[in-house]
Amino acid sequence: MLHPGRDHPRTRRSRLPAGSAALWVLAAGLPLAFLALFFVWPVATLVARGFVADGALDLGGFADVFSRPRTWRILGLTLAQAGVATALAVLLGIPGAYVLFRCRFPGRGALRAFVSVPFVLPTVVVGVAFRAVLAEGGPLGALHLDGTFAAIVAALVFFNYTVVVRTVGGLWEHLDPRAEQAARALGASPVRAFVEVTLPALGPAIASAASLVFLFCSTAFGTVLVLGGLRYGTIETEIWVQTTQFLDLRAASVLSVVQLVVVAGALTLAARARRRQERALHLTATAGAAHPLRLGRGHGVDTAAAAVTALVLVGLALPLVTLVVRSLRTPTGWGFGNYVALGTTGGGAGGGSALSVTVWDAALTSLRTATDATVIALVVGGLVALVVSRRPRARTARRTVSVLDALFMLPLGVSAVTVGFGFLLTLDRPLGLPVDLRTSGLLVPIAQAVVAVPLVVRTVLPVLRAIDPRLREAAATLGAGPGRVLRAVDLPIAARALGLAVGFAFAVSLGEFGATSFLARPDRPTLPVVVYRLIGRPGEQNYGMALAASVLLALLTAGIMALAERLRGSVRGGEL
Known about the structure:
A two-stranded antiparallel ribbon has the order 1-2. The chain has 2 domains: 280 residues, Orthogonal Bundle (MetI-like fold); 263 residues, MetI-like fold (Orthogonal Bundle). Strand 5 and strand 6 form a beta hairpin. By secondary structure, it is mostly helical. The radius of gyration is 25 Å and the shape is globular. It is found in: Cell inner membrane; Cell membrane. One of its GO terms (cellular component) is plasma membrane. Its main location: membrane.
């Protein structure tokens, strides 16, 4: 009697792949078509322009570009800025992770939220905020650090500090404290117990955080361009210079390949380090509980970590507070004159206008563009996460899923400037269609969606992978088809990550500057483009407007993230 009952579900599951094959092909095919058309093709076309001459392969561009001292200086600056910023972010972030995730004290939740603010700020805003701090008349103007290597590193640490805190702290929060307690009971000092027990367990998280920070630092564009200009340029800014000022596509192509190699190498090394540490983590990772923060007592570890974290929090708050305060300073005194001027086009040389539209018009354009980009990113990224979350039994299918996952992470390691310029080269008549997408209003949202899709995938994927496969099997056993299983099992659970995915996609789109600086039409600039234009124009009025516009952009981004977190909380608190 039981034997037929066991065979029935197995028989149904053997028939499901054939019936749902078209659904899964469509779910994987649409994102792949999007990636091929709007990422692989533009990037490959730009790279090919540098390596193909008269229809033949010509690799002389590498010798030409690497024979220039400028190239080696740019490469060295990129590695130095990214390396120093990554090291500092990790060293400062580990104490922050301990205090904010391993200790318990009043206001911990608010501080966790605060350290996340810099990461979601547009890079142009970060650059403007640090200039307000370091420029003459700013709180740290006496240090004369404006436009220096140290200013760029500080801004990169400011932007990426939360990556380390949240990545390492999220794991540290769940470590079983008994292993470290046992080492202490055997006579180990607090420092030795941390170094020999806790630190190896945190190895995978530290490696992941370091690789992400290095990726973000080595591909930084807006922050470096605002603070360092061409003097402290990186590979990312040099690609922009070569394409916009020198029209040297060969040099831009070589630098794009170099950038991809640098990022891929860093991610590969991090992945190997993470895999070596995961075995130790498996032996010690269990749920742990936070302990009360103890200051000035015992071994002093809590006091030292709290002191470092407090200094960092002051450092995080200083640029933001300074940006707001400086935006209220006008030539005639304190007031909202700079914000009132946002309704104008600024002052240019000879009494002309600095902008083609008002800042408020640019803000509306940014909101509309970011909305379109978020919708595109959610559809494409959601489908990718759905497909990649499957755990097929066949080895070939598993490898295919892994390759698909890696493919959609590529936009994080390729210059947004390269993507934007590639759009201009390829999308005049895509696939022979009688339409010029370069003049379409969809081009900027598509470019921003290309950047946002990896973040949507990384936000939704862990939730989908956490679903017990037996839930899907039980639904299929009860007669639910593939579509019904998705609606009843996957989608309600994936909705828990929807708010955060929407927030990240919208924030990234709202602040995207690299590709948008190429693609935005003069009569439809976005807020980051307008801010950069105002900074580049002389005049106290233009600088004041740039500060006020940066505050506006920061408030819009923070508001979107707050709404996203609220949506996330309401979903968690509901029936889902």
